[in-house]
Design brief:
By secondary structure, this protein is mainly α. It is built from 14 helices and no strands. The longest helix has 31 residues.
């Protein structure tokens, strides 16, 4: 058949090209953790590009090796899992997770070399394994998110919410992949369903790619330190940070809305520079964000308290150490990912307590 494009394949081609562009922009952010997201978006984009060439028969004009892109399904799960397990301090990567992809490539390239026939049973087994592989990583991702949610620390709610978005988007792709081949094997596939995987891939590329590009700081790691010339050792910084956190939890100096770095340094009899360095390098935050996470944690305790449902948001803002409602709302949404009112409604709904009038 003569190679040709139709409306659907043009849409998918545009999505693939934009996905490649998005992944490139994510790579340019210069963060190893965000690079995982970049490779994830790139893998989806390359797969989508291959599907377009296959449907339009342009693959006949390209090297046969382009068909190896089908094996990228074995990369998607591990990359999503690595990204979900990484945080602002640590990059998670385990090469053993990529073994199925390596084995696929070996088989793909030795098959023509040794004239190995591609038996239908092998194809069926491969598809079943691909579906199981994707389902396994979807389950592993949600298991990790659940475990993370049960051990949530201050300031980590927005990171948890972002991970959930990635997890739901990836699982949506997994289910569409599974549904597609379920229709194939049951003989109920219709021509209008043939693009189901590509639609899911396009949704993933746009949703995760654009969100990840627009919010690179979500899981970005502080890799270039401005304290490279400092004489403060890592051990000393850890000791200082532990002391600061203990002081925060016992004395609650953050309830003072006028608390400044110099004031805290004087209270602890420490150098302001060393306090700032310890917080920046070990906790990945600025001093103001570090203080605000304690204030927000204090506010969250009041917002989910059934006995304080009649307490106005402005009063909670002032009692937790903020000067005004605007700065409180901005800090709360930055750290928690939702507004104080939404957080209160969510907590009261989960607890079954009556909503404030």
């Amino acid at each position: 058949m003569e190679p040709s494009l139709n409306t659907w394949t043009i849409i998918f081609l545009i999505a693939a090209v934009q996905g490649i562009f998005l992944s490139t922009m994510i790579f340019l952010r210069g963060s190893s953790i965000n690079n995982l997201l970049g490779f994830l978006v790139l893998s989806f984009s390359v797969m989508l590009f291959y599907y377009v060439t296959y449907w339009t028969h342009y693959d006949q004009l390209l090297p046969k090796s382009i068909a190896s892109a089908q094996g990228l399904t074995y990369v998607l799960g591990p990359l999503a899992y690595f990204y979900i397990r990484s945080d602002r301090k640590n990059l998670y990567f385990n090469g053993w997770h990529l073994l199925p992809f390596v084995l696929y490539l070996i088989y793909f390239f030795i098959q023509p070399a040794f004239n190995i026939s591609y038996h239908p049973l092998i194809r069926t087994t491969q598809v079943i394994f691909q579906c199981g592989h994707l389902l396994f990583y979807s389950a592993a991702i949600f298991w990790f998110i659940h475990a993370m949610g049960s051990n949530l620390h201050n300031g980590e709610l927005k990171f948890l919410l972002w991970r959930k978005k990635v997890a739901y988007a990836f699982t949506g792709y997994t289910l569409s992949f599974f549904a597609y081949y379920a229709l194939v094997f049951t003989g109920t596939l219709k021509i209008e369903y043939d693009y189901i995987i590509s639609i899911a891939s396009s949704v993933f590329i746009y949703f995760i790619g654009y969100h990840g590009y627009q919010n690179p700081q979500i899981l970005i790691r502080n890799e270039a330190s401005k304290y490279q010339r400092s004489s403060l050792s890592t051990t000393a910084a850890e000791s200082i940070l532990t002391r600061i956190k203990t002081y925060m939890e016992t004395e609650k100096p953050y309830l003072d809305s006028n608390l400044k770095l110099q004031q805290l340094a004087k209270q602890l009899e420490l150098s302001p520079h060393h306090i700032s360095q310890s917080i920046n390098e070990l906790d990945g935050q600025s001093f103001s964000d570090f203080i605000n996470q304690y204030r927000i944690h204090e506010a969250q305790s009041m917002l989910k308290d059934p006995d304080q449902t009649d307490k106005k948001i402005i009063h909670i803002a002032l009692d937790s150490g903020f000067n005004n409602k605007v700065s409180f709302n901005n800090a709360f949404k930055k750290i928690a990912g939702i507004t104080p009112s939404e957080y209160r409604d969510l907590c009261l709904t989960m607890s079954g307590a009556p909503q404030p009038k």
